[in-house]
Amino acid sequence: MKKIVGLTLLGLFGNAHALPITVDGNLADWGVGPSSWTPAAGIHYTVEDQTGGSGARLFPGYGGQAYDAEALYATISGGKLYIALATGHDPRTVNNPGANSFGAGDFAIDFGKNGSYEMGINIKNAIAYNSATKTYTYESFGDQSGASTVGGVFSALTGVYKNPTWNYGLWNAAGNYDPSHPDPAHPTSLKSGTKVGMANLAYTTVGASGFGVHKNDLHYFYELSLDVSLLTDSGWDGQSAFNIHWTELCANDSIIADPPPGSVPEPGSMALLGLGFAGLLGVRRRFSWSRP
User: Fold this and answer.
1) According to the model, what pLDDT value does residue 59 have?
2) Which of 45, 247, 257, 281 has the fewest beta carbons closer than 10 A?
3) 267 contacts: CB under 8 Å, gap ≥ 6
């Protein structure tokens, strides 16, 4: 199933979110809550709240809430790019493909919307869990520092990379199970890259019900912030449109967000950042998983 939303980057700075955002895994300061996925004015977002059981066909796979991406948000404030995600996928899901378990993917940014994804924000996925010590082992690639979990919220500084190489999921471009020929439009996680800096990351580790259309479904929330300068350090020309993308390591549900239609940037915003933007089209593709 595919959803296409006409969007433009012109609103990104002109309609920047006025309220301060705290990166704490709580999206209330985005205007998002149990009553609606729609955020406050000026937030740029893509939403598709749809759940399928294990036998429900959701392009290009078979689905369920455990691998669902509900909403992706972006805004710029105070020289920082903020990103937020609502998903049915537990960020601590252990990546064990042999047991049909796939971990969290990384955030990918595509400057110019040409499918090249020149920048990645690393989320170190869990590869094992020790039930005796209640500790996780994480993938080797990436950089996290100052990590802590308080009140069901994991927080850390996490690496931002340019010139990345990517892992991909299980589905080919036609939507068929074909891990030998994965769809390059949906990168899942970083294999390598050159570190340009750190992003502030928080995600919830305890599922919350009561959100969206299906109130019994559990949801988890990510928030990130990073300096806009890291985008230019990663090769952004300051003018081209860009996509923000996220999926799990199996790529059974992906989501892409761009800024929504908006007004021409305010003079103050233009002076602050020295940027002009072109229009773009946001693409939202829903996938889901079960092994055929």
Assistant:
1) 54
2) 281
3) none
Q: What is the DSSP letter of 265?
A: P
User: 41: how many CB neighbours lie within 10 A of its CB?
Assistant: 11
Residue 291 in any domain: the answer is: no
Q: Which residues of 167-190 are buried (b: 16+ CB within 10 A; e: fewer)?
A: ebbbbbeebeeeeeebbebbbbbb
- Establish if 292 belongs to a structural domain: no
Tell me which residue of 186, 195, 211 sits closest to 61, measured CA to CA. 186
pLDDT tens for 142-169 read: 999 999 999 999 999 999 999 999 999 9
What is the per-residue pLDDT across 172-226, written as a single tens digit (0 to 9) for each?
888 788 999 999 999 999 999 999 999 999 999 999 999 988 899 999 999 999 9
Number of domains the chain contains? 1
199 vs 26: CA distance, rounded Å: 17
18, 44, 242, 269, 282 from 264: Cα distances, Å: 17, 15, 17, 10, 18
Return the number of other C-beta atoms located less than 10 Å from residue 279's C-beta.
Answer: 13
**Residue keyed to tokens 């404030």:** 77
Domain of residue 149 covers 2-285
Q: Which two tokens stand for residue 40?
A: 């406050």
**CA torsion angle 112 257 125 76 (round to 10):** 80
